[in-house]
Amino acid sequence: MIEVLTGSTLNTIQDFGRAHAMTLGVARGGAMDRLALACGNILLGNAPDAAGIEIVFFPFRVRFHTATTFAVTGAECPATLDGQALPKDWATTAQPGQVLALQAPAQGARCYLALGGGIDVPPVLGARATDLKGGFGGLDGRALRKGDRLACVPALASPLPHSGYGLSRRCPLPSSDGTTVRVLPAAEYDVFTTAAQTLFHGQAWRLTPSANRMGYRLEGETTLALTRPLNLFSHGIVPGTVQVPPAGQPIIQMTDANTCGGYPKIATVIEPDLRLLAQTPVGTFIRFIAITREEAVDAIRAETRAVQVLARDVARLRTSLTA
Amino acid sequence: MIRISMAGAGALLLDAANGAFSDATQQRIWATARLMGAQPSVIQAVPGVNNLLVTFDVNDIDPPVVERTLLETWDRTTPETTPSRDIEIPVTYGGDFGEDLALVSHFAGLSIDQTIALHTSGRYSVAAIGAMPGFAYLTGLDPRLAIPRRDTPRLKVEQGAVCIGGGHAGVMPCTSPSGWHILGRTDLALFDAFRSEPCLLRLGDTVRFVRVP
User: Fold this and answer.
1) Which candidate, A88, A10, A20, places its Cα nearest to that of A278?
2) Which of A136, A236, A270 comes nearest B130 by C-beta?
3) Contact, A159 vs A321, CB < 8 A?
4) What was the ipTM of the complex prediction?
5) GO: which molecular function terms (chain A) (predicted)?
6) Enclosing domain of residue A225
7) Using CA atoms, how far apart are residues B168 and B57, in angstroms rounded to an integer?
8) What angle do CA A85, A90, A91 make, to 5 degrees?
9) Are the C-beta atoms of B187 and B122 separated by less than 8 Å?
10) What is the CATH number of the domain that holds A198?
11) Which of A82-86, A313-317, B140-144, B153-157 has the lowest mean pLDDT?
12) Cα distance from B11 to chain A (closest Cα, Å)?
């Protein structure tokens, strides 16, 4: 059992979301940086997609009311347990009464708190993720408030090393001036002018303050133009879709985006790079690099393997600790 | 003629639109969606308006294989009517609940009452569900009411708002931004995540709007 000590309208319970509810008009949702949540869960012996807390608003503090294993991953946030600094990407055990405090990130934007067993809220439409727009999932479909108490799914007691342990290889975070993400061309790519196609890949796009779990509005020096006006019927879109409304400045649809849209689409950011967007702070720059579908498939499969290898290595380590 | 495009590595968009909206094309979209949704590696087949998005797990299957299956499935599919139910949606028109009614009447060159009569006389069909939880794209709007969307979307349109936009009719299932024009409101809940069937409307349902005080 943990108690949230700091409220905000942005910190939410998330897992891997609802990929199977799109036909209901429900966004996939889930952690914006899935790899970070997965790594935290794996360190604790949880399933990679167990529910944790996505923290976007700092400082964030929780009090543990029972002995609980936990891991902090994602953005590089100064983290302390009862004032004692914790290493980055670290898992350890908190005793009853101890307070975990996370400060604003020095690098990255979103931090994840995973808890042994995973947070126990009722699954809705197959997931525990909070859907703020639909008002369901997580804790009553809303962000976490001061005073909220959260229980964990009972987990098999399996010890962590006395002072904890962490990831030896960290998940990459954007540098101070921004990030480069890999994209595939989308349906209307060829309807953009040659100049627009060149600009899209050549120009740095500033992330404006209109950036949240639904979408990221970008701003570039020169806008993107079509060779002819398009009037598209509404169609399904996936997280990572880069739309270009008539004003010519792109919008990246993120995990809580509407499941259908009607604006022309120039590209789609590949799945493994969505987490880099999730960790990109407002005001820094995003660049788009074109890759092939084969390269995208390789990148996705490589990430899947990396997560499987981490899970295997952690399981071995934990077995050796018990032995 | 159809076009298939990439929506990232793990999704394909089949676009069968050819000028104006086609009911026959939409019925073929539903049939293709039903068959593709049953494929083992497919996560979802999501009908849009004369188009279909298919998502799949590239850890299990190569995208070109899904692309071939999608094309073959489309080619052998014929328009399929789905079982249709008749759903009535009670609407309070105008006033505080329908702030764009006057604007739409002006656009259509009709009186307020004529505009409402035109909206209630339509038999609408649920072509697709998406955008928001339980939002239905209703086709069958009288062309005189086909007012373009607002240039700038409203940041907040209330749940239950009965609206029109881009040649379609719809009802807001939750409070959300929208660029559609608001004619009135209904108390009917279009979506409830805790119902065994969360969406009130199913693909192919016939919808009528009924004026209530």
Assistant:
1) A10
2) A236
3) yes
4) 0.95
5) ATP binding; hydrolase activity; transferase activity
6) 178-291
7) 32
8) 110
9) no
10) 2.40.100.10
11) B153-157
12) 8
Mean pLDDT, chain B, integer: 94
For chains A and B, count residue pairs whose Cβ atoms are closer than 8 Å.
151
The strands making up A90-94's β-sheet, listed across from edge to edge, are: A12-14, A52-55, A107-115, A68-76, A90-94, A165-166
Compute the average pLDDT of residues A251-257.
97
Query: For the stretch A124-162, what's the b/e string if a residue is b when 16 or more beta carbons lie within 10 angstroms of its beta carbon?
Result: bbebbbbbbbbbbbbbebbbbeeebebebbebeeeebee
Residue spans of alpha helices (H) in chain A: 34-43, 194-202, 274-278, 293-322
Q: Name every chain B residue with its beta carbon within 8 A of the beta carbon of A260.
A: 48, 128, 130-131, 135, 137
- CATH entry, B3-75, from 3.30.470.20, 3.40.50.720, 3.40.50.10700, 3.30.1360.40: 3.30.1360.40
Residue ranges of E strands in B134-178 = 136-139, 154-157, 161-165, 168-171, 176-178
Name chain B contacts of A254, Cβ cutoff 8 Å: none
**pLDDT (tens digit, 9 = 90+) per residue, A257-314?**
999 998 999 999 999 999 999 999 999 999 999 999 999 999 999 999 999 999 999 9
Tens digit of each residue's pLDDT (9 = 90 or more) over A14-47:
999 999 999 999 999 999 999 999 999 999 999 9
Residue B179 confidence (pLDDT) = 86
